[in-house]
Amino acid sequence: MVIGSMAEAAVLGVLAPGGMLTAAQISEQAKISGWSARRAIGQLESHGLIMATTYASRWSITPRGRAAWTTKFHRYAQ
Question: Which of 11, 14, 20, 60 could covalently link to 29 via disulfide, CB atoms 3.0 to 4.6 Å apart?
Answer without folding.
Answer: 14
